[in-house]
Design a protein that fits this description.
By secondary structure, the protein is of the alpha+beta class. The protein has one domain: Winged helix-like DNA-binding domain superfamily/Winged helix DNA-binding domain (Arc Repressor Mutant, subunit A), CATH 1.10.10.10. It has four helices and five strands, in the order H-H-E-H-H-E-E-E-E. Strands 1-3-2 form a three-stranded antiparallel β-sheet. Strands 4-5 form a two-stranded antiparallel sheet. The N and C termini lie far apart (44 Å).
Length: 119
């Protein structure tokens, strides 16, 4: 388990839902170098998703550059995943506001949740 990678995932507001869960699970499996090799079946069970949905989420994370995947060579050979925490850094100009919660407010490179005040 890599606390550094888990913390990086929690601090990055771009991913929500399934993508965030899978990224957290990979960070939990990862060593300090950000490398892990869980099977898709084990990953799906850990995050309570189907295998097919887990494959879709992994494809999204790979496409976005959040993870790198070194394919296993053959049937029943697991892939090797590498987390790319440099892709988790919050950059106000690179985020798509439509994908963020409306209650996220940027202050410098950090973000915070704004709570609604009772009237």
């Amino acid at each position: 388990m890599s606390i550094r990678h888990i913390t990086a995932v929690f601090q990055y507001p771009h991913y929500r839902g399934s993508e965030r869960l899978v990224l957290l699970a990979l960070a939990d499996y990862a060593n300090d170098a950000g490398v892990c090799f869980p099977s898709v079946k084990a990953l799906a069970a850990k995050v309570r998703l189907g295998v097919r949905q887990t494959h879709k989420v992994l494809s999204t994370l790979r496409r976005d550059g959040a993870i790198s995947v070194e394919s296993g060579s053959g049937r029943h050979i697991v892939n090797r995943y590498r987390l790319n925490p440099d892709k988790f850094t919050v950059n106000r100009n690179s985020l798509n506001p439509a994908t963020l919660n409306s209650d996220v407010q940027f202050t410098g490179v950090f973000c915070s949740t704004v709570t609604a005040e009772a009237e």
